[in-house]
Write a structure and sequence with these properties.
The structure holds two protein chains of two kinds. By secondary structure, chain A is mainly α. Chain A is about 85% helix and about 0% strand. Chain A contains 13 helices and no strands. Chain B is globular. The chains are: A mainly alpha, B alpha/beta.
């Protein structure tokens, strides 16, 4: 299966996405903002379909909307966190607009399916480079802000007293999460963003008491799930998104069982 | 030089004047209990000292320097926070996040920061459970970790916001003993806010009593008296001492006669 170009591209794309999602997801779950990641996927769907309708690239349309949406959620901060109904409504409306834009497509259901559930086997070399670039930006930005972000997460009052701008940090971080979401959509689609962004990170946070090991395990699990998922898809001819979500769910359940037994 | 100096300070929060025209100075190496009911301004005062609330008039100085965010001499322990009960990171990782956490870059501690973390874990006597998940600890143990965070960087003024909230009398006494011991050993100034004066009686050097938008600072015997508190609240208050405990009483009748709503009476009855 490694002989085919599309499989090589698929494995590379899975690895790139897993790297970005595992890293960003660790902080997302630690900050208890995993629902925001889910929300960004849905909002991005409207961005991607809207961009196609306007004759633009769906990838950049998706990215623009998820990054802007992330920054906006960060700016609204706690006021938003307490209003799950409002967030849910925004999600639903965004998804509704996505459906409307889709309705105007002439290309049929193929593109919609790829956006909703991902299409890792359809990644070409140009897309791969674009994804690698975004992943690099994502990791570099995270590396730059990791220390302050961790402080703001575990001791927000103290961090604020020492001069940290909590709102700006939250905006920057959720914008970064927007980049990771846009990447994840290429592999698992908007509906299954949770599987790579939240699943591995949540499992790692259950198992590891140290930041460094948890962060590494989150990336490792995301990578293993994405790569094994793609391989299993090749062997079984079932969708890779199914395998990745099944592996993600399985790993999380395993982590819950292990941590419950320790306690 | 005073550890903390307030000159003509008025603090407003959301259009409401919380504290009016405060003038007070706290000396170095003093253990101060900050007393007052809900909404008396204990937290607002601490946030002003941290530079998080700007005084609408007057100025605040900490060890001779203006009170600003990032003042190196100040350590701060906020009120206990929900959300830590699910945290699987170790106490050590929790504390380490605050060691030099304000800088940019990857979240990796250097040797000096790790040593500081080990030092504060020793200070609060949390060595036995520092490597267990924070969520698996008791409320009292979690609180010690937060106190350890506040001690990072060797502060000379420690602000502790309601450290006794949610603790049983046994743990309250242990917390007071610990903080009093640290305060003496390190020679630092401590502002310790609380609802109830009695658990703190033996430990305090001074009490800063907030009420009715005003403040009174001095020893317990000077401040917690009928005349002083009556002036503070602008209504008759009686102080009763019995069996080594102090009760501040504004009788129901008095409060009712002055048209003070029942919800406001609570603070008149308790210290």
């Amino acid at each position: 299966m490694f002989a085919y170009d599309f499989m090589q591209n698929a494995f590379a794309a899975a690895a790139i996405v897993a790297l970005a999602c595992g890293a960003v997801g660790y902080f997302l779950v630690l900050r208890q903002q995993s629902f925001a990641g889910h929300a960004l996927g849905h909002v991005g769907f409207a961005g991607a379909t809207g961009a196609v309708l306007a004759g633009l690239s769906p990838f950049w349309g998706l990215m623009a909307v998820t990054v802007a949406g992330g920054a906006l959620m960060g700016a609204l901060g706690e006021r938003l966190a307490e209003r799950d109904v409002a967030v849910g409504m925004v999600l639903a409306v965004a998804l509704g607009f996505g459906v409307l834009f889709l309705n105007f497509f002439t290309s049929g259901a193929g593109q919609a399916n790829a956006l909703l559930f991902g299409n890792v086997l359809g990644v070409d070399a140009a897309t791969l480079w674009r994804m690698a670039g975004c992943c690099g930006v994502c990791l570099a930005a995270l590396g730059l802000m990791a220390r302050k972000l961790l402080f703001a997460t575990l001791g927000p009052e103290l961090a604020e007293a020492q001069g940290a701008d909590l709102r700006l940090l939250s905006m920057l971080f959720l914008a970064l999460a927007g980049v990771a979401v846009a990447e994840a959509v290429q592999v698992v689609g908007v509906l299954l963003v949770f599987t790579l962004l939240v699943g591995p990170a949540a499992a790692a946070l259950r198992l590891c008491t140290r930041v460094g090991t948890g962060f590494s395990l989150s990336i490792g699990l995301a990578g293993a799930q994405a790569l094994v998922g793609v391989a299993l898809a090749y062997v079984t001819d079932w969708p890779s998104s199914f395998w990745i979500s099944a592996l993600s769910g399985g790993c999380y359940l395993g982590a819950v069982a292990v941590s419950a037994r320790r306690a | 030089m005073s550890a903390l100096l307030l000159e003509g300070v008025t603090l407003r929060l959301g259009g409401r004047t919380v504290l009016r025209d405060l003038d007070l100075g706290v000396g170095q190496g003093v253990f101060v209990g900050v007393l007052g009911g809900n909404g008396a301004g204990k937290t607002t005062l601490m946030r002003a000292v941290l530079g998080l609330v700007r005084p609408s008039t007057g100025r605040i100085a900490v060890f001779g320097r203006p009170a600003e965010r990032g003042h190196r001499a100040i350590g701060y322990m906020p009120q206990a926070r929900a959300g830590l009960t699910d945290l699987r990171l170790s106490g050590r990782a929790f504390i380490a996040a605050a060691a030099g956490g304000i800088g940019w870059g990857p979240a990796v501690s250097n040797a000096a920061q790790r040593a500081d973390v080990a030092r504060v874990i020793g200070l609060v006597d949390a060595g036995a459970y520092a490597d267990r998940p924070v969520g698996a600890l008791s409320g009292g143990e979690r609180q010690r970790l937060m106190l350890a965070q506040a001690l990072l960087g060797q502060p000379r003024l420690l602000l502790l916001d309601e450290p006794l909230a949610g603790l049983d009398p046994h743990h309250q006494a242990a917390t007071i003993r610990l903080v009093r011991g640290l305060q003496r050993r390190l020679g630092i100034t401590v502002l310790f806010s609380a609802h109830d004066l009695n658990p703190l009686l033996g430990a305090l050097d001074e009490v800063l009593y907030l009420g009715g938008g005003h403040a009174a600072l001095g020893s317990v015997d000077e401040v917690v008296t009928g005349p002083v508190l009556s002036r503070l609240y602008g209504s008759p208050v009686e102080v009763v001492r019995a069996q080594g405990r102090i009760f501040v009483v504004a009788g129901e009748l008095q409060a009712a006669r002055q048209g003070i709503p029942a919800s406001e009476r609570e603070r008149h009855v308790r210290v």
